């Protein structure tokens, strides 16, 4: 297989950007910017998320099973970059960002336009990112979303010409 062609073709898949948070007040808290997310079922509502196996959020997600997918909005590239590296939890803030707790205890970034509470139902252990299949247990809109909801989302392409993931 031509490696450059493979990278080009797989990078043509559009990716939204999200900050995944895991953990509760009784456990470690971890977070990471992720982009491999898709809805896989309406009933029950299920998402599939690709999570890098050597990340802290992977470890906490496996142990607790309680997650929040914080959906980033247009103009929040700085927030995406802030969670590309491990973010500390101190003084009630995660990576310096205000949070509130979801019903499952995981952090919701109040700056994100929307957040989805998740419960891990299955993990497919293949590759350097494992696929978590998680059930949507609640949703939070931190602000009113006007127009098409899919146009309100921050996409990988919004970070600039040289920022890629995948391929």
TrEMBL record:
Keyword Oxidoreductase: yes
The keyword Oxidoreductase appears for this protein: yes
UniProt xrefs under InterPro entries: Flavin_Rdtase-like_dom (IPR002563), NADH-dep_flavin_reductase (IPR050268), Split_barrel_FMN-bd (IPR012349)
SUPFAM superfamilies in UniProt: FMN-binding split barrel (SSF50475)
GO MF: FMN binding; riboflavin reductase (NADPH) activity
Residues annotated as signal peptide: none
Keywords for this protein: Oxidoreductase
PANTHER family: FLAVIN REDUCTASE (PTHR30466), FLAVIN-DEPENDENT MONOOXYGENASE, REDUCTASE SUBUNIT HSAB (PTHR30466:SF11)
Family according to the record: Belongs to the non-flavoprotein flavin reductase family.
Protein name: Flavin reductase family protein
Organism: Komagataeibacter rhaeticus
């Amino acid at each position: 297989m031509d490696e450059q062609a493979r990278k080009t073709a797989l990078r043509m898949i559009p990716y939204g950007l999200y900050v995944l948070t895991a953990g509760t007040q009784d456990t470690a808290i971890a977070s990471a910017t992720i982009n491999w997310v898709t809805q896989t079922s309406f009933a029950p509502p299920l998402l599939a998320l690709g999570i890098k196996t050597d990340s802290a959020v992977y470890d906490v997600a496996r142990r607790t099973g309680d997650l929040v997918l914080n959906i980033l909005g247009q103009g929040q590239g700085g927030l995406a970059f802030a969670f590309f590296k491990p973010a500390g939890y101190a003084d009630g803030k995660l990576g310096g960002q205000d949070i509130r707790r979801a019903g499952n205890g995981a952090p919701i970034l109040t700056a994100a336009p929307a957040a989805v509470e998740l419960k891990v139902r299955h993990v497919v252990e293949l590759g350097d990112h494992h696929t978590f299949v998680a059930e949507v247990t609640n949703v939070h809109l931190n602000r009113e979303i006007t127009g098409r909801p899919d146009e309100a989302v921050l996409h990988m392409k919004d970070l600039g010409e040289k920022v890629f993931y995948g391929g």
